[in-house]
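Student: I would love a firmer grasp of how sequence relates to backbone shape in proteins. I am handing you a single protein, as its sequence and its fold in token form. I am told such tokens are a discrete way to write the fold. I hope you can help me see how the letters and the tokens relate. Take your time, and here it is.
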Amino acid sequence: MATESRALRSAALAEIGRVVSFDAYVWALTDPETSVGTAPVAFVPPALMPDLPRLIRLKYLTPVNRWTSLSRAARLDVPAASLVWRELLQGHGVTDVASVVFRDRYGCWAFLDLWRLGGTFARDELAFLDEVVSLLTGHLRRCVALCFAATAGGGPRDPGPVMLLLDAGLRVLGQTPQTLEYLARLLPPNSDTAPVPAVAYNVAAQLVAVEEGVDRRPPLARMHLADARWLTLRAARLGPDVGPDAQIAVTVEDSSLADRTAIFARACGLAARETELLHQLTTGADTRTIATRMFLSDNTVQDHLKSIFDKTGTRSRRALLSRAAGTA
């Protein structure tokens, strides 16, 4: 998924730039269920990089044009109303931000912010971005589905869980020994510098957003690592007196079968009843048991299975479950 989605986003940004000029950007994939950012492709002014944790925190705390509530491309009509612009971006010369979300009925797959240093985005430029969204959302979802078709790696699993410890401002205080290796595989650095824990910042920022009442979705994100492997990240406060100044722990561990199946079903475009049937299959239930549990006939179960096979590119229950579980 990382290779395909990065190539797709990079090519799309080049085409967008032919019509809509921009000076910086952040294009992050998201967990389709929680909408928490995972794998970003980004360029921000170098002077802003030391403030990256603060930028992400403010992004999640800013209700104005938040990707979780957008239905179409939007700009900063009143910049001062945006917390992230007022507290940070204006100080770096950003004059406007165009925001879009890549969402369909199966979930939220990505969000994109384009920054302009001088001038504002015009209505026709926003209309063009809406066209881009309609063209690319399905492709981004299929990039996620493709990673489940990868062959499971034969090497040993890394010891876990891996953990990062962040302060209230999301700055890294400490980490377990395997953390840097995980981060380098999630988001390879461009040089010899240490990898940036962007996904950890996003999960922690979502925790703060929940605490502040900005959003209700859990501080959790699932993302592809390599081969057929997925990781689940969670954030929680530490300490006996849990409050806004308490440290934040972000854990990283292999995704459970339930987590994998949830993403797999959404990425493959399964309907609600098909998703329910897939979850029943993971329990080892046979056709008759599934039919009883779902109040369906045996024939209807078989019809749903055929549809699932078509959508997932599999031909048998064994192949289907192997792909969902990452054991193929």
